[in-house]
What we know:
It is built from 5 helices and 8 strands. It is α/β, with parallel strands linked by helices.
Amino acid sequence: MSEQQLATVTAAIKQARAEGTTITAGGEVLEGLMLAPTVLTGLSQKSTADREEIFGPVVAVLSAADLEGAIDLVNDSRYGLAAGICTRSLAAAQRFAAAVRVGVAKVNRPTTGLDLNVPFDGVGDSSSNTFREQGAVAVDFYTWSKSVYLG
């Protein structure tokens, strides 16, 4: 991590703290340009840490009362790179994967790491709009690919 990136990420953590977010783990600068992996909890849907991408070892955890609430939380973001669910219910996994507006949906797997042979792109502000399956313009206009990983 560069000095500039470290400053950006620590500023995001400081902002989260000022907004009432709990730093459950991490948050401190370690030796050199390393930041301890950080877990933010107690966020509201209006908090900056929930609304902006933090490119560092930081995860913002939001809680939902049920599956539909979790889907709503994912879809209430302008970003849509990846989302994941941990469940024993195949029906819940299928419902989640179909309903979330993201480029990659993962079931019982970490949201990081991708298979390079699988189509990939984000949705919304996480999209580069560069990935397109080959096909007719009409097909491209009316379709959208989503990669789903099952663990």
